[in-house]
Fold:
Amino acid sequence: MDAMAPPRYAFGVNVVAKTPPDAPLPPPFADWFVARGWSPRPHQLELLDKARAGKSTLLIAPTGAGKTLAGFLPSLTALHARPKKPRRAGGYGIHTLYVSPLKALAVDIARNLEAPVDEIGLTLRLETRTGDTSVHKRQRQKLNPPDILLTTPEQVALLVSAPGADRFFADLDTVIFDELHALVTNKRGDLLSLGLARLRKLAPRLKTIGLSATVADPDELRGWLMPQGGTRRRLSHLVTVAGGARPDITILDSQERVPWSGHSARYALGDLYDAIKRHRMALLFVNTRSQAELIFQELWRVNADDLPIALHHGSLDATQRRKVEAAMSAGRLRAVVCTSTLDLGIDWGDVDLVIHIGAPKGASRLAQRIGRANHRLDEPSRALLVPANRFEVLECRSALEANYLGAQDTPPIRSGALDVLSQHVLGMACATPFDADDLYEEVASAYPYREIDRRTFDRTVGFVATGGYALRQYERYARIRAGKDGLWRISHPRVAQQYRLNVGTIIEAPLLNVKISRNRAAGLAGRGGRIVGRIEEYFIETLAPGDTFLFAGFVLRFEGMYENDVIATRTQDTTPKIPLYAGGKFPLSTYLAAGVRAILADPKRWGELPPQVAEWLRIQRRRSLLPRQGQLLVETYPRGNRHYLVAYPFEGRLAHQTLGMLLTRRLERAKLRPTGFVATDYSIAVWGLADLGAAFARDRPSLAELFDEDMLGDDLEAWMAESYLLKRMFRNCALISGLIEKRHPGQEKSGRQVTMSSDLIYDVLRKHEPDHLLMEATWADASTGLLDIGRLGDMLARIKGRIVHSRLDRISPLAVPVMLEIGKEPVSGGDADEHVLREAADDLAREAMNGG
Amino acid sequence: MAAEAARSRYEGSVPARLGVTGVVLEAFCEGALWWADEGLLCVADLHLEKGSAFARRGQLVPPYDTVETLNRLAAAIDRLDPRIVVALGDSFHDEDGPARLAPRDRDALFDLQAGRDWIWITGNHDPRLPRRLGGMILTELTVGRLSFRHEPQAAPAVGEIAGHLHPSARVVGRGRSVRRRCFVGDGHRLVMPAFGAYTGGLDIGHPAFADLFDPTTLAAYMLGDAQVYSVGRRSLARRAP
Structure:
């Protein structure tokens, strides 16, 4: 099949460079390069050099620089030179372990390596091992390990925790981490770092090679690749390949009117279609799956030439995605509308234009996506940014500058999560009995855990053993126990089974199959219908039978549920009743936020903006105010029978949502009777029944008090403890740490039930042992992750004494976008759940009054 | 201290008044049923020692569910000072549960029983209960026009108060879906929510509830934070029509 053929530019070395003098390749390798009319690139040889000297190295290179071959060349040459049989009895163990964030990438790379291995005439075994690998093959790999094993972080965890890991990895020489920047910034990275620490113990001389796109702080990745310990951070070597040709990026300058709000970019449809027509193959990136669905549908509506345009996102059925990928690499498509599923480095064909719909939200993400176009290092990538609304015009502008400047805003590496550590500790007990002192030292050698103190580590071991409760009631049910020899071992083989079933850190939201049925009766009887993809249960829960929604490129009518299937039928409707389902929303990066604020503050730069957007800002300046650099603008005005407060922190939706919750609490306390709020990436609107403007004018309370940093203390704690977000995070921590078990096929337990019970556990634990290890882990996640509290704190500190109040008698131009979101976004604040219940109860009264 | 918190939480909460064969009852937020005329307080499916039952199988969930459940029950008893307390079956999660009861929880239980009649109705999780738990152990109890038993009977049962099914219901509005434990009844029969701290819910659209109620008069009494909401059939969100 075409999709299986190695992509043309995977090793992108079609340029003849000068042969570096002092790093000769072994003959068959050199011959191979010559036969292809290629020569090795300097960074490939540099990496080879470092590896020969046994040095761990980070390679930072843009797409198309031949990163993969660079990463494997040291292993291939070493294996070529190795004696056929080890001196001792038995065969070799694994020589090189390659870890990638995606199953598909591991499989893809294995396939791409086979050609050079074959052509060079190397005799080595190269195999993949993923969740899809058959039990039989895994067994064989255990008994007779391949030379190179390509795998995923979860498999690494399973391999190091299996008995016999010491033999399996005894000959391990090199570990290659592909797309390291994507591997390390989350809990998966934490688990992998701990796995690496164990691999080092099994094979003390191993070296690491990290392959990465450009990142904000390379030193973090360099540190990640090295064993830590002692006072100074140890860094790996670094090889950097300068970016290729400067990308050619433009912002769409449409004749159409740029809308005030919304994310559809429907206004630009004609322009999009024209751009597709003018190129061989275009990738259209969007930020959410719902946007992908919408743009796809709209494009087909105007597709007069019947261009082959496809859709690709994470909720679609895998076979459908594979089909699209195959068609792409065969060059049979003209455009693919996609989400982040196509972000990571798989080569799928000859893309000559990347269109980014909506604002990119982060400069690094934009750079990566643009890298999808034109996988030849020496030609510029072409990209078109299509802002969906006026604020996004500002954001695109600032991203464009960031990309030109080469700025990076990849997130920093957090300190290692304790739920992940719990999982790992149990895994280590499954592998072989451990000594707590040794394991502590090993764990602290992993980069994210380099600062962990002994007490926290011991608490974690206590948690793994008996749950770690102050009320020590579970001694007799301990999962691991310290024996007379002081070594911790599992108390029962069942514990190891449970560990294996629950390994990993990826917790998926409960998903339901979407089945399209000819007619609803057949579907609900469990017969017929094809599965087109999977959708989040929480979205379906908000639908009533008969509601229409957009999915897999169709407008579907929700008919009902049959076991784990959502039964839907096709409709002729063109406008779905339920427009959105969330999934994959990115917050605005701090870097771009600062850029947007800078543009607003500097009228001289408005000339770079489309005239209608510049005009919008001018009117705002006339009618209200524009914040200067470092200021926070707060506007108040009445509208209808409500009073509004609109603030413009530009800190992203998550931080704003948290801010909204806290502001509402404070306004409530000030008796200003807030009734709701809506947050966007740029601003936040709070409304209430009392005259907010008048209250601030009289300093009751003052805006300085309202926005005081101390809201991040008690108010935050009180709100968060009740928040469903915290419960959701607790659930993840409970699953990852092994407190509760993941759902497995064949188990009756539905995803919903796991959520229920973890909520109940949370309520009980919060009340009776609020400082338990898992509560600590949950809070750590909450404050760094979903709620963006760090960011909110920085903002509140920054604007102290710099709040400008603009008291208006009507809405300002800048406030229009967020006001238009009211009614589209779910209203938060107050006790929204109780409100829904109250309304449902009112219905009963009405039913009763009208005679039912 | 936890009992204090629980008490303040439900003090001033608004119960729902409902009728079963003409008997007026009150449904409270914590999931307790109050029959004022008889001074009878009924709670269903306490599932005491569910946490330790899980721990025994290797899931070390917090061992505080029993104390939490008893605290909530104590708060309701303090407030209402009932003459009779009926525990409507599945009071313990398994038959070994009573043996695992921590001494301080057992004492707390005895304190609650002092000065009133206490009736354990047996359930499928606790078909046999030890005498040393105090109170009377029955399979079923009839008071006036009402019969209290664990599992609802298949035949139309007039005046039946049952548990067992852990009913919960869901309403949808403003882009969100709200699920709560609930009482569910049709004027002839009432099924009570599970009271235990670790007990989940089963949607009343589930087949297990089919044929138990007259659909025309069915209502769910959903447990809010400080109020029980009476919700009619049409306002309830169902998985399948």
Remarks:
- The longest strand of chain B covers residues 176-185.
